[in-house]
Structure formats: structure tokens, C-alpha cells
Amino acid sequence: MLLEMKHASKTFRASRGSGPVHAVKDATLQARPGEFVAIVGESGSGKSTLARMLLGLIPASSGGIELDGVLLAGMSRSELRHYRRSVQAVLQDPAGSLNPRKTVRRAIGEIVRLHRIASGRAAVDEKVMQVLRLVGFDQAETVLDRYPHEVSGGQRQRVLIARAIVLDPKIIVADEAVSALDASVKAGVLRLMNDLKERLGIGYVFITHDLPVVKKVADYVYVMKSGEIVEEGTKEKIFSDPDHPYTKTLLAASPVLEVIDQR
């Protein structure tokens, strides 16, 4: 499977008294299952807009997004359903992404029922517990009836990942998915994401400004500045021999940190 963005741009209409905002300009990228693709840049560089375009949440102003050569904008209802199952999201704010009135059981179980992955309470619960175990809840039944405020930030992020992988996606678009977490919790979630890549073949489009994290987990890197992808290459190339002045500036400004590995 191949997810592609081809020469895609996004321009937002101007508010009164100002010009149009060119959030993404002529962006081209590729992502495949089993690959960890990172998109890095400062706040305001267009990373999150690009993520929303990949997820089909906002349309491109020009260019487009394709899955295996089929243009997202022209997909039929069944093709769009396949796209939404194949390309899932894990966002920055787990508290804001989970309904505070829904238990973990219900938040994931509704997805299982909606997509007809299982039917009947027992089968749905078993599927929910199965994906919870996959994301590190060894005693999955202990969190089934908890609400989002009753679990920690790291656990909420794991619930979000479980909700995404219950659809058996091929690629997850993760927009600043670990930026709000403490260092040790962040390390655990990153280990989980890498484990899912190895075990399930999931690919990632990982949106971040955190270069030490990129150096730890990425296979391929795109660098964004002012809505444009100014450089791309393997992690080794970007970190050891960058070409663009902006990439060099980012690397020079980045703290030299090691992600804590607590097992």
C-alpha cells in the first residue's frame, strides 16, 4: 500500500483586511506500511494542516492525496470507507480526543460495532480487550469501565492508539502524539509505536518538532518551513549531512537529549 501526497497545497481564505494564508505549498511525500516517516518543523510551519489533509479532514486547494493511485477527492463511498480504515489518526491531546462521558469500553467498542468487526457484547468486549493488551494493558479488564479522567495521560494515549489499531490500519498519522507527555512516559509510548510497526506492519506519518525523538525512531524525514517541504532524506542523511540552511538551523538549535529507556 502506498499513501501519497502529490504537489498538494492548502490556502485559507483571508479574514477581512489581510491576504490569503498559504498553509501548505506544493507538498509531495510518500508513506508505506512498516515505515516511520517523520515531518519536522517549527510551530506554524504547516505540519498539522498537512496531517489533516492526509486524514481527509480538509480538502487540498490544489494537488491531491492518493491511496494506491486512487485520488482521495474522487473516491466512492466504499473507497472512502476503506481509506478511513486504512489511514487512522492519533492526535496530540488524548484528553480532548476522548469523550469524557464514555468509558474505555464504549469509546473503542463503538468503533468495533460501527465497522462490524464483531457483534454481540461478549465478542465486542473481547475485541476491545485484545487491542488494549496490544498497547500494553496487561490487565485490560481493569480499565474497561474507566472514564478518560480516571487514567493517566500516557494511558489515555495508549487508549487512543488502541482505538486506531482496532480497525487494522496500514498507516497512522500521529500529530504531535507524544509532545504533551513526560520523558519516561514518552519513551514508553514510542517503544509501543515501534513495537506495533514491527509486529503489525503499521507505518507512521509522525508530525513533530522534537528532533531527538525523530533521531530515535524515524526511517525517513521531511523538513517543513513556512508551508513548504524544504528537504527530505533518510534519518542518517538529515542528521549527518543536511543540505538546506533551515535544516542546519533546526539541528543546531536542538538539545542533545537521549530518550529515557525505562523497561
From TrEMBL:
Coiled coil: none
Keyword ATP-binding: yes
Keywords: ATP-binding, Nucleotide-binding, Transport
Biological process according to GO: peptide transport; transmembrane transport
Molecular-function GO terms, alphabetical: ATP binding; ATP hydrolysis activity
Domain annotation ABC transporter: ranges: 3-251
Protein name, entry field: ATP-binding cassette domain-containing protein
